Every structure is written in structure tokens, then in C-alpha cells.
């Protein structure tokens, strides 16, 4: 594109039935938008109060390019065909616009009014018919870009620079400021690219709306929404913790506003020491642009990063904002959350729309992992290969981040990704995960400007302090307890100044000071150093008893994680023996669940109440996104209970269930980290113990539901009676279905928990050995098949066929097998020949090319 041109207005016309294709088109247009080629408009940009018909016609009349997403529903939509298409064709006759037909689903479109125009894809092939739809969208974007070029060639006079308001501001950015916008702030190294820039790794975070009046409307939003020009109607304040990505977000606000033909200007709070806004404007223009002055006819947006560092006092701050209103169209502030406690400054911002940056949930974490794995080969990597890499990386990242252990901020996730990607580890005495944790802590010391030669002193101090806090029975200590620790430390170790070390640890963010206490800022640091102390004194009788106690109370988060970190620090056999012993003691008196006919026969009478599984045609990328959103929702729901106190020495059934799950997780950490250093027999023993722990819980659950079947179904039926108006016959059917799904969901969930906790591509051979040497119980076979599906991405055909045939009289467990296979099909790219084999060997019908649609047949006006 010619850099002197303003972005062209692109209008998207589509039937809401085709919203899936609409969303895909928007994603693929991002490069044209960022490069200043287009500004797109569609009816999703309408806001409350807009007059629907007038707004659509206005934007359609101002458009330079109109794309039509053609399908049978588009042709059947009166508004799309008779209003939007007709108005466009009238303008087309006057050479005012160009059209780009995009056939998204097969239909007889060549007989329509658009039939004489060349489609965006080769020979007018429908996007839905492509094996790889991304290839279709690349053709579409190329076609749109060609149409833009031809449109500009036909209207040279209207697109040349003749005034300041026609400047493509992108081309006027100074080179050093462009480099600043690309800079990640921290050097990240990647095997596929020497210089990782911000665009390679940036993911727009979610924001929490802090204005109470919006709580019922929109509690969280995706921050990219705020960069769209139509939404930039108010001044915005965005708060965020340290290292959560405020500066990166500010840079992307700048770049996106620039692409939307605004004039953004960026500064940092501590640069502002005067209310002279005109001087500030001219200084920023000179620093960031060439050939642009204050008279440029573009909307000006001031972005102030680290606003909490602004140097104006409370007397002059209100004046500053008064003057800003006269000079800038909008203001975006990004600040540390501490500004909330600065009442005098915070009240000045009461008229700003206020948001807080949220840590990355599963969805945003998944986006970041995908971007990381695409660096250097994003356009050429096979999708199946990318999905496998994403899944492997996600398993590792989730195992390291873990809920409540490391804050899921972009910085920590990226640091973890880089460390996992590194082929050189600085400390081989630790396992791979241990290396990640230690590196994160050492990076914090480096940021606090602590000299490398003093690391040993600081690490020893942290180790002793963590154990002191642990022995206090709390997770924090007060001033008197700190003084006691310092006195005892001085008696044992050489130290020049406690206050110097304490100040440095507070500055690094490793420690945090409250009103009257000190604590470790993040739990992973606390657990890491408690475990380090235990590992260094593991031969002492007192420490052996501590480890026994931790293992016996492994159902609590604190104890489980200290044990996990202890495995990182030490290879002492005592730790593994303690875990194995506790695994054997879980649900004592119950055998492992087999899910054979004897165990599931009581459920067979319910199986007819649920429909047969059918494998639909689904987009794996969309399915993965749905799963990640669901995981985020589950986390949001369970966060309400995160502060419930965990009781040690708890012998309740709930503690026993939690103990069973924690043992699986702990052993999973050992297996993934020590698979190269533990003997094969030890790996097998640990794997069997973890499986046994989960399957004994499942046995307890199935025995309970079988013995209490009447009572449970009666409770379900009474609840349904109170809340529904079902007939007696329908009530009975729904009750049976509900009871079955409780048992079915728990059985499936336990197996998946075992697989996700223990699985690794490095351990497939261990599970093969277990499958071959263990009794052929369906549960073990299901676990081994699920491990191969998840971690090799291959379909173990002989094992599936053998198990499926052996379960012909066991419909409950047979359906569990089918469920695992169907879920694998939904989440992964699978060759059509494998799908045909699955359909013929496992009785799963394949419903192909079924499009998921959620909107009406036509637009309403």
C-alpha cells in the first residue's frame, strides 16, 4: 500500500447465522487494519441508543470496500440482500465503491445479483469446503488487499496528501520511538527468532470494570475493545499490579489508535512536572513524530503510563486535567493499584471509566502459549503440530504456575516459557521445574540490583526465614517475631546488616510488608525455601518427623506444595517412600475401581435415558477456546471458596477425597521431573500408586451411589418436582438421566484427572508396561488409551478396538471410551481416514459439515 493513503472504510455485510465465519474474517483482517490499509465497520459496532437502520445505511454509504459473506442464509435475508446489497450496487454503478463477494457456504449464488462479480476465493469455492480454512481466509485477505489497491488507483486525487488531516500518521513515527513500541522491556530469547519483539508475544488482557453501576452489565471486558475508535468515548483509568503488563498494554493502545487514524501521544507519569499541557504536547510530538505539529487535524489521545509517579501535587493536579480537556480528545491513564490508597489523587479521577487488569486465565494463557509456539514459523507450521506443541507446553506451564502458587501474570508465564524452551540449565542439581522456580527468584534478586556474589547470602537468609515462618504456624510474622529471627540468625551466620538485606528483599518483591507484619509476597517462594531447608536437614530426626507430618496431611495446599518442592530439592528415598505409604492408606478398605460389568451393572438400566454419542464436525480451534473459557468459569466459581481454612489432621471424608487428589498431583510432579533419574521400577511403582489413589476414590463413590441409589434418586426427584412442571413419566426419565450423569461425570472426571496429572510424552512407555503387566481391568485400559490420545496425539487403534469389543455387554464403560475418542476428535485435527476407522470400529456415527449457528435467519430492524 502507498503510505500516504488514509485507511479505507470497509463494510462487512453478513447473515447472523454465519457469525462463525464473520469472527474468522475479523481475525484475519488484523494485519490490514494494523498496517493502516482499512478500518472495518459492521453492525456489531452499534451501541445502545443507536438507530439501527440509519446507522447501517450511513456507514454503508461511507464505505470504500464492501464485503459480502454469501450463504443460503445471506440470500434469504431480506435486509442483507434487498437493503445492503442493493444500496451497494447503486453506488457501484457510480464507481464509488468496490465489492468483494466471499462465499462462506455452498449455495447457488452465481444466479444472484452478485453472480457476475469475481469471488474472493479461487473459482468461488466456499470457505466451509476447504480442508484448512485458514488457507481460504488468506486468499480472502489477499483479494481484499487487491481490491483496496484497485480502488486507490481509480481515485488518485481523493487519496493524495493535500492537507494535514489526510496524513497517514504511521509513516511519521520516529524510528527510535518505533523501536520503543516494539521493545518487550525484558529480553526474551526464543530458539526460532533472535530478536523477540512485543508483537510476537503480546496478548490483550481481560479487564475488570471497577465502576459499581456496571456490575450487572459487564463485569469484565477484553481490553482490545477499548482500542476500537468507536469505543473511545470516555477518559479511561486502568489499574494493575507490578509486572502485569501495563506498559505493554499502553504501547498497543498507542499502535491500534495510530492505525485507526488517531494521533496518540505517550508519556510516563514522572515526566510530568508542570500544568503546561501545550509544552507537554509539543515535547511529545517532537520526540515521537516527524513533520507533525499541534495543528494536525486528527483526534489527539494522551496515554500516561505509570500515572502514580506523576510529580504534580494535589493543588495542581485538577488544573492539569482541566487543561488536558482543552487540548486532547481523550486520556488513557495506566497506574499501579497503590493509587487507590492515595485518596487526594484518586478522587480527581472519579469521572474516569475505571478498570483493573486481571491475571491471565486459561483462555489468555492459551493465546500466549500459541503465540510463543508460532514465533518464527506461525505461517508454515502444521496445525496438528502446533496443537500438539501447545498441549505439551500447557501441561508444563500449568504444572509450574499451579493455582495460588505463581501469579499467572504475562511476565511469569513468559519467563516460564523461556526457561522451558532453554536447552541450557544453570543448575543441574535441580530438576527442570525446580530450575524454573529458582530462576524466577534469582531474576527478582537481579531486578533489585543484588550482586551475584551475594546470592548465596540472600538465598541462605530466605531459607532460614521461610523455615522460621513455617515453624510459627502462620504464613507471616510480626515485628517481634522478626526481631527474634534476626537475633537467632546472627548467632549462627555471619551477616553485616539485617536491615540492608530486608530492604533489598522488599524492593525485589520477594517479601512484602503489611501494617504490622512481614510475609513472602508469593506462595511459591515461601514453599520453595521451606522445602529447601527441609532438604538440607533431611537426616535430622526432627525434620524426618516434619516430612512425615506433611505427607500425612498432604490434603492441604500448603503441605502438598512443600512436599512437591521437596522433591525438586532432594532425591532422598524417604520422601518417595512417605508418598507411596500415604497412597496405599487412602480409602483403606476399598479396592481399585475396575469399571467392569460387575461394578457398572446397576447403571445399565439408566443408559437408555441418554442419546447416542454422535461425532459432529467441529472446529478444533473453536472447541479449544470454549474449553478454556469453561475452565476460567470454573476457576471463577471456585475462587469464592479459596479462603476456606484447610484443617490439618482432618479425618473427614472430604479431606480423604482431597488427600487422594493431592497424592495424584504430587506423584505427577515427581514423574514429570524425575523420569530421567528414577529407576524404571520406581517410576512404575509411583504411577501405580497414583492410579490406585484415584481409582480407590472412584470405587468408594460407585459403592456409595449403588448402596444409596434409592435415596439419591428420591432427592433428585423431589428437587425436580419443586422446580419444574414435568409429567410423572418425564420426571422419572429426567431423574434417571440425572443420576446416570452424576456417576458418568465422576467416572470420566477421575480418569481424566489421573491422565492430566500423571501424563507426559516421556512416560507413555511406563503406561504401556503397566497395561501389559496389570490385570486387564477397563479402568487401566482407559487410562492408557487416554494417555496416548492426549500425549502422542495418535490413535492407538489396536488397543481401542480390543477394549471396545470387550465392553459390548458393558454399555456404561463402553460409552466412556467413546466419550474420550469424541472429545479427542473435537479438540484435534484428525485425518479423515482415522475418522472413518473410528466410525467403523467404535460405533460412533460421524455427522460431517454440521455448522454451529446461534443467530437468527435475518437481521431485524
Number of strands: 16
Main-sheet strand order equals 6-5-11-7-10-9-8
> What structural class do helix, strand and pairing data support?
alpha/beta
Shape: globular
Q: What can be said about the biggest beta sheet?
A: 7 strands, mixed
- Rg over alpha carbons: 31 Å
Kindly, what is the distance between the CA atoms of the first and last residues, rounded to a whole number of angstroms?
37 Å
Structural write-up:
- By secondary structure, the chain is an alpha/beta fold.
- Helix 14 packs across helix 15.
- It is built from 35 helices and 16 strands.
Features of the shown structure:
about 850 residues, alpha/beta, seven-stranded mixed beta sheet, four-stranded parallel beta sheet, 35 helices, 16 strands, disordered C terminus
Helices and strands, with pairings:
Blueprint: E1 8-13, H1 19-28, H2 30-34, E2 38-41, H3 52-61, E3 65-70, H4 72-76, H5 78-93, E4 98-103, H6 133-154, H7 156-159, H8 175-182, H9 198-201, E5 206-209, E6 220-222, E7 236-240, H10 246-259, E8 263-268, H11 277-288, E9 300-305, H12 317-327, E10 330-336, H13 343-348, E11 353-357, H14 362-374, H15 383-405, H16 410-421, H17 432-447, H18 455-471, E12 476-478, H19 479-492, H20 498-508, E13 511-513, E14 517-520, H21 523-536, H22 541-552, H23 557-569, H24 573-585, H25 597-604, E15 615-616, H26 620-639, H27 653-674, H28 680-707, H29 709-723, H30 728-758, H31 764-773, H32 778-791, H33 797-806, H34 811-827, H35 832-842, E16 846-847
Parallel strand pairs: 1-2, 1-3, 3-4, 7-10, 7-11, 8-9, 9-10, 15-16
Antiparallel strand pairs: 5-6, 5-11, 12-14, 13-14
Amino acid at each position: 500500500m502507498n503510505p500516504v493513503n488514509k485507511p479505507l472504510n470497509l463494510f462487512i455485510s453478513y447473515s447472523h447465522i454465519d457469525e462463525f465465519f464473520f469472527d474468522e474474517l475479523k481475525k484475519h483482517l488484523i494485519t490490514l487494519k494494523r498496517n493502516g490499509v482499512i478500518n472495518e465497520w459492521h453492525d456489531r459496532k452499534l451501541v445502545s441508543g443507536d438507530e439501527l437502520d440509519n446507522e447501517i445505511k450511513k456507514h454503508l454509504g461511507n464505505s470504500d470496500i464492501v464485503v459480502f459473506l454469501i450463504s443460503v442464509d445471506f440470500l434469504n435475508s431480506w435486509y442483507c440482500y434487498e437493503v445492503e446489497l442493493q444500496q451497494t450496487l447503486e453506488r457501484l454503478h457510480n464507481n464509488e465503491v468496490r465489492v468483494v463477494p466471499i462465499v462462506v457456504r455452498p449455495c447457488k449464488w452465481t444466479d444472484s445479483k452478485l453472480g457476475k462479480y469475481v469471488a474472493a476465493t479461487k473459482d468461488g469455492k466456499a470457505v466451509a469446503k476447504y480442508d484448512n480454512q485458514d488457507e481460504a481466509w488468506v486468499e480472502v485477505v489477499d483479494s481484499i488487499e487487491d481490491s483496496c489497491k484497485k480502488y486507490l488507483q481509480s481515485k488518485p486525487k481523493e487519496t493524495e496528501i493535500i492537507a494535514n488531516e489526510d496524513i497517514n500518521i504511521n509513516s511519521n513515527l520516529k524510528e527510535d520511538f518505533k523501536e520503543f513500541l516494539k521493545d518487550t522491556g525484558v529480553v526474551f530469547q526464543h530458539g526460532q527468532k533472535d530478536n523477540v519483539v512485543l508483537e510476537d508475544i503480546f496478548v490483550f488482557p481481560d479487564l475488570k470494570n471497577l465502576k459499581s453501576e456496571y456490575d450487572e452489565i459487564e463485569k469484565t471486558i477484553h481490553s482490545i475493545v477499548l482500542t476500537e475508535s468507536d469505543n473511545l468515548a470516555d477518559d479511561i483509568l486502568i489499574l494493575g499490579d507490578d509486572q502485569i503488563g501495563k506498559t505493554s498494554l499502553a504501547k498497543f493502545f498507542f499502535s491500534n489508535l495510530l492505525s485507526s487514524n488517531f494521533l496518540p501521544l505517550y508519556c510516563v507519569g514522572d515526566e510530568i512536572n508542570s500544568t503546561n499541557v501545550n509544552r507537554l504536547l509539543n515535547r511529545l510530538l517532537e520526540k515521537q513524530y516527524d513533520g507533525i505539529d499541534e495543528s494536525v487535524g486528527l483526534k489527539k489521545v494522551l496515554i500516561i503510563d505509570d500515572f502514580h509517579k506523576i510529580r504534580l501535587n494535589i493543588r495542581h493536579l485538577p488544573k492539569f486535567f482541566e487543561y488536558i480537556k482543552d487540548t486532547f480528545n481523550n486520556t488513557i491513564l495506566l497506574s499501579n493499584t497503590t493509587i487507590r490508597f492515595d485518596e487526594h489523587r484518586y478522587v480527581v479521577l472519579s469521572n474516569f471509566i475505571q478498570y483493573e487488569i486481571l491475571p491471565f486465565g486459561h483462555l489468555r494463557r492459551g493465546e500466549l502459549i500459541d503465540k510463543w509456539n508460532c514465533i518464527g514459523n506461525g505461517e508454515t507450521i502444521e496445525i496438528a503440530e502446533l496443537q500438539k506443541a501447545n498441549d505439551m507446553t500447557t501441561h508444563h506451564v500449568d504444572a509450574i504456575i499451579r493455582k495460588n502458587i505463581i501469579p499467572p501474570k504475562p511476565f511469569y508465564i513468559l519467563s516460564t516459557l523461556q526457561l522451558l524452551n532453554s536447552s541450557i540449565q544453570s543448575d543441574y542439581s535441580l530438576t527442570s521445574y525446580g530450575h524454573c522456580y529458582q530462576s524466577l527468584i534469582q531474576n527478582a534478586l537481579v531486578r533489585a540490583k543484588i550482586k551475584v556474589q551475594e546470592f548465596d547470602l540472600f538465598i541462605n537468609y530466605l531459607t532460614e526465614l521461610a523455615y522460621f515462618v513455617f515453624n510459627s504456624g502462620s504464613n507471616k510474622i510480626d515485628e517481634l517475631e522478626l526481631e527474634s529471627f534476626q537475633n537467632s540468625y546472627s548467632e549462627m551466620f555471619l551477616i553485616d546488616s539485617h536491615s540492608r538485606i530486608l530492604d533489598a528483599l522488599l524492593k525485589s518483591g520477594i517479601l512484602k510488608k503489611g501494617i504490622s507484619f512481614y510475609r513472602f509476597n508469593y506462595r511459591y517462594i515461601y514453599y520453595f525455601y521451606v522445602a529447601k531447608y527441609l532438604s538440607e536437614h533431611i537426616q535430622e530426626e526432627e525434620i524426618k518427623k516434619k516430612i512425615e507430618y506433611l505427607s500425612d496431611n498432604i490434603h492441604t495446599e500448603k503441605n502438598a506444595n512443600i512436599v512437591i518442592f521437596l522433591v525438586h530439592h532432594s532425591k532422598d528415598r524417604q520422601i518417595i517412600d512417605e508418598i507411596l505409604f500415604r497412597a496405599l492408606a487412602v480409602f483403606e478398605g476399598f479396592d481399585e475401581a475396575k469399571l467392569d460389568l460387575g461394578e457398572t451393572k446397576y447403571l445399565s438400566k439408566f443408559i437408555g435415558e441418554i442419546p447416542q454419542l454422535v461425532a459432529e464436525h467441529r472446529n478444533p480451534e473453536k472447541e479449544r477456546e470454549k474449553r478454556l473459557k469453561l475452565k476460567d468459569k470454573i476457576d471463577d466459581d471456585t475462587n469464592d471458596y479459596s479462603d476456606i481454612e484447610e484443617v490439618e489432621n482432618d479425618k473427614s471424608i472430604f479431606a480423604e477425597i482431597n488427600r487422594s487428589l493431592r497424592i495424584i498431583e504430587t506423584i505427577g510432579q515427581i514423574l514429570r521431573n524425575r523420569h530421567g533419574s528414577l529407576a524404571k521400577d520406581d517410576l512404575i511403582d509411583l504411577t501405580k500408586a497414583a492410579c490406585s489413589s484415584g481409582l480407590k476414590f472412584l470405587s468408594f463413590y460407585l459403592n456409595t451411589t449403588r448402596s444409596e441409589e434409592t435415596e439419591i434418586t428420591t432427592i433428585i426427584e423431589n428437587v425436580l418436582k419443586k422446580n419444574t412442571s414435568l409429567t410423572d413419566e418425564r420426571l422419572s426419565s429426567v431423574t434417571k438421566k440425572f443420576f446416570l450423569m452424576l456417576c458418568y461425570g465422576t467416572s470420566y472426571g477421575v480418569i481424566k484427572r489421573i491422565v492430566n496429572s500423571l501424563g507426559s510424552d516421556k512416560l507413555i512407555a511406563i503406561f504401556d508396561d503397566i497395561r501389559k503387566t496389570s490385570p486387564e481391568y477397563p479402568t487401566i485400559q482407559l487410562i492408557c488409551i487416554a494417555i496416548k490420545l492426549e500425549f502422542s496425539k495418535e490413535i492407538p487403534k489396536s488397543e481401542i478396538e480390543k477394549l471396545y469389543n470387550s465392553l459390548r455387554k458393558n454399555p456404561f464403560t463402553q460409552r466412556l471410551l467413546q466419550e474420550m475418542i469424541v472429545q479427542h476428535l473435537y479438540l484435534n485435527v484428525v485425518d479423515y481416514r482415522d475418522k472413518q476407522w473410528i466410525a467403523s470400529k467404535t460405533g460412533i456415527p460421524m455427522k460431517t459439515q454440521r455448522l454451529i449457528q446461534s443467530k437468527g435467519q435475518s437481521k431485524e430492524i
